[in-house]
Design goal:
Blueprint lengths: L2 E5 L6 E4 L4 E2 L13 E3 L4 E3 L1 H4 L32 H16 L5 E6 L5 H14 L3 E6 H5 L6 E8 L3 E10 L1 E11 L3 H20 L7 H18 L4 E8 L2 E8 H25 L8 E4 L1 H4 L4 H5 L7 E3 L4 H13 L10 E2 L1 E3 L7 H5 L8 E4 L2 E4 L5 E4 L8 E3 L12 E6 L2 E6 L5 E3 L2 E2 L4 E2 L5 E4 L6 E4 L8
Parallel strand pairs: 1-6, 6-7, 7-15, 8-13, 13-14, 19-20
Antiparallel strand pairs: 1-2, 2-3, 4-5, 8-9, 9-10, 10-16, 11-12, 17-18, 17-27, 19-21, 21-22, 22-25, 23-24, 23-26, 26-27
């Protein structure tokens, strides 16, 4: 059996498979498939194709079918779907159509708030679509990596809510409860940010992106890369073509953070409440932040000052990537009866062998080597690309190759560990494998950007300040 892991979050469903597991392209050439659906003349459009037309058809777009998964009829039934569950079934069918090339069975990590009724609906969909679903694992439980015992929290964002899950580790990691911060999810945040950006356009250019559905959709399309840039720098440019003109603003990080403050305050209140409910009013062992939540500007900085020992940014698709191996561990390699639902897992670090203990410590990367020059790594991100932003550490790629962005990726030190993060749409490759999320570098790792032939190598210098 070739098992795939599916991470069910309507902000972006992900599927992983292979040995070792990697995230798969399940929505055209994208790794994520958001929970959007749009009726069309011939069929129901789902995923990214629907999301990219959401502002053009605001009355027809649907994005609550996973959030409100039920057999309740739609207000306006469609020829292709009469209920939220049938819309979700159409979305799942599209995902499975691409994923089944890589595996023949599925394990699903479901949001912590899902109940047995919703799991039953998913099983019904899978039977109709002939998807061999082996079972379910709670998403926060699947995403966490074994570590210290004690209280752990998991922070995630969906289209219409934040979730803070309370986990307790004492031999096993168990899901205790989940707090939901409703109506302040990704869709609500983007609405606030689009409104803030539109005000800046009107103030500086007299152009209102909300004047037409086309320019509003263009604003939403250009927000994600701008928000990613604001995670590293104080301003980001947004350009919107309209007619024969192009309008531009420099969006300030402070404007974005101020717009998000009510939603972030609600999330932080839920985190504090979750710590108290978990019996740790003063200290939580760790807070695991999904990559969906971590890439929102300012989230990690807001969590940092809380009384938390560790804030851990999870890689993209952490639950999907862990599911194939975790499922074998949970079922002891045997085929379970029915489709079990696990809300706990073993929680212990495997003991290190004597041979490992005697091995000399492996040096950590201190520099990147490119065309015979070594670029030092620090806690401040080193931006790699055709045109790194001025005023900060940068490595400019001289090669004229397709698919190399002005700001393609970053490398920074987290403690002594070098972490590589892809910022591009054409991909960053580590040892010829495309990144699916932030990864730790080791000495000798080779980095390639897009279609460029040049390689950048992680090295360790005797003196950290060598260049």
């Amino acid at each position: 059996m070739n098992l795939l892991g599916l991470e069910l979050c309507d902000a972006g469903i992900l599927v992983a498979g292979g040995d070792p597991p990697q995230l798969l392209q399940i929505d055209a050439d994208s790794l994520e498939s958001p929970g959007f659906a749009l009726p069309d003349k011939k069929a129901l459009i789902t995923g990214k194709a629907a999301e990219q037309r959401a502002r053009l058809h605001p009355r027809q777009i649907m994005n609550r079918f996973w959030e409100s998964l039920s057999t309740d009829p739609l207000e306006t039934p469609l020829p292709e779907a009469g209920s939220q569950a049938e819309v979700a079934c159409a979305h799942l069918a599209r995902i499975w159509h691409q994923a089944r090339r890589f595996g023949n069975a599925l394990v699903i990590a479901v949001p912590a708030g899902f109940q047995r009724t919703q799991l039953g609906l998913i099983l019904g969909m899978s039977q109709e679509l002939e998807i061999p679903v082996q079972g379910f694992v709670s998403l926060p439980v699947a995403a966490a990596a074994p570590g210290p015992e004690g209280l752990h929290l998991h922070v995630d964002v969906h289209l219409h809510r934040f979730e803070v899950s309370v986990l307790k580790a004492a031999g096993r990691l168990e899901l205790q409860e989940t707090l939901r911060v409703n109506e302040t999810g990704l869709e609500g945040l983007y609405k606030l940010w689009a409104q803030a950006a539109a005000k800046e356009f009107v103030r500086t250019t007299r152009f209102d992106p909300f004047h037409s559905a086309e320019t509003e959709q263009e604003l939403y399309r250009r927000l994600p890369p701008a928000l990613a840039a604001l995670g590293r720098q104080p301003t980001a440019a947004i350009d919107i073509p309209a007619g024969h003109s192009t309008y531009s603003v420099n969006l300030a990080r402070g404007v974005i953070l101020e717009a998000a403050k009510p939603a972030y305050d609600g999330l932080l209140a839920a985190v504090s409440d979750a710590r108290k409910r978990g019996g740790a009013s003063d200290t939580a062992t760790a807070v695991y932040v999904s990559q969906r939540a971590a890439r929102l500007p300012g989230i990690l900085e807001r969590l940092g000052p809380l009384t938390i020992r560790r804030v851990v940014e999870l890689p993209a698709g952490a639950a999907a990537l862990a599911l194939p191996g975790l499922w074998r561990e949970l079922t002891a390699g045997r085929q379970p009866a029915g489709a079990p639902f696990f809300t706990s897992r073993p929680w212990s670090r495997p003991p290190r062998s004597p041979e490992v203990k005697k091995t000399a410590p492996v040096p950590q990367p201190t520099h990147l080597l490119y065309r015979n020059l070594a670029y030092p790594l620090t806690a401040e991100p080193l931006t790699v690309g055709k045109a790194p932003p001025p005023g900060g550490p940068g490595l400019r790629i001289a090669a004229d190759a397709d698919g190399v962005a002005p700001e393609h990726c970053t490398v920074r030190l987290q403690g002594a560990t070098a972490v590589l993060t892809d910022l591009s749409t054409h991909g960053t490759f580590l040892n010829d494998r495309r990144l699916a999320g932030p990864v730790e570098l080791t000495v000798g790792d080779a980095i390639r950007l897009g279609a460029a032939a040049d390689k950048i190598v992680a090295i360790a210098c005797l003196e950290r300040n060598e260049t």
